[in-house]
Amino acid sequence: MSNEQFNNDFFSYQGKISRKDYVINMLIVVSLLIGISFVRFDSFAPYIRPEFLYKILLFMVNLFQFVMLMSAISLVYRRIADFSDTKSIKYNNCMKNLFLFLFVFPILYLFCIRYFVDIIPIIRNIIDLIVIFIIVPIGIVSSIILAFIKGSQ
Q1: Closest-CA residue to 19 (of 34, 6, 29)
Q2: Displacement of CA 135 from its chain's centroid (Å)
Q3: pTM for the full model?
């Protein structure tokens, strides 16, 4: 296997990533997400006179969080590609479906689909509970486990 298949990009879905690079990049992304969540942007509101500038600031922060989540998803996808490449096609397809269910669906639901499900509030509440209390913790634990699975090197 050549080293050209491995890359260390933050936002790429091509190639593979080694365990060491996965852990380093995931720590960077998670620390940025945690760091931005500790900043209280409502304390900046009195100092920003035109109100639309404050709304632009909040939009930029939300966009940054979304980009960091997409970066984390790309890291997970490349890590899954690293260790499932040498397995059977059935295993590879199963891992890709699991990736879609555990990582892509919660992000898409929380950022996009949730606002369209407002029509029926009880369904939205049920899906919120399932996503937040079941799927997200399983996804977090599985992304930690991915750091320990030996890939094809």
Answers
A1: 6
A2: 13
A3: 0.83
